[in-house]
Predict the structure.
Amino acid sequence: MKTVIVIPARLNSTRLPLKVLLDLGGKPVIQRVYEACAKAKLHHEIWIAADSQEVMDACKKFTDHVLMTSPEHPSGTDRIAEVIKTIECDLVINVQGDEPFFDPGIVDRLITAMRQSDAAMASVCAPVENLDELNNPNLVKVITDVNGYAIYFSRFAIPFSRDKEVADVSVYRKHMGIYAYRTNFLKEFITMPVSFLEQTEKLEQLRAIENGYKIKMIEVKSIEKGIDTPEDLELARKKLKQNGTI
């Protein structure tokens, strides 16, 4: 089962323009993500899906595995789907281009989960850490069945606690946006119309669930925050210094 990691690298970002190219300890953010991915063990190749010549040129300085994709794609999923038209593979892992501190072991666990299940997709969750996270609509929550397949994703706390206030938030799970897709499913997925649930919650993974496809969830202890704001970038720079990386 040939597996490739694809990192969508979009130049423009609403909250932090040019973030994939911003300096993080002497290297652009996207290079830090690429190097983290390279530490995984079960994949075969890593590719960056660029949306502009500026991103393409920056990535070419550290890898030849960069492909130009259309700047018109509405999501990273569509960008990845364009890449796999060129790169032949059975399984593709979508790693966000703004998460330089993610654990590369997660990639290997996703690959293993897909090899051992019949799921169309797989993704990652972790325990919610506090009430602020639980009530934050920007932090997506997920619930699963007893076999670890996603039942639903929501921006609200699910399940709703009807009879009492939430005493232990750790029973809730937050979602991390790293995905594994079977290639044949992904090609079909991007042709499906936007579903009602997806449109309502603004979460495209609900399109798969609403169309009857399984999403296998793997659980990790915690999730490293991506870089979305100038404050996140400064925290990331401090973390690199604390870790002795720079």
Notes: The mean pLDDT is 92. The CA atoms of residues 6 and 78 lie 12 Å apart.
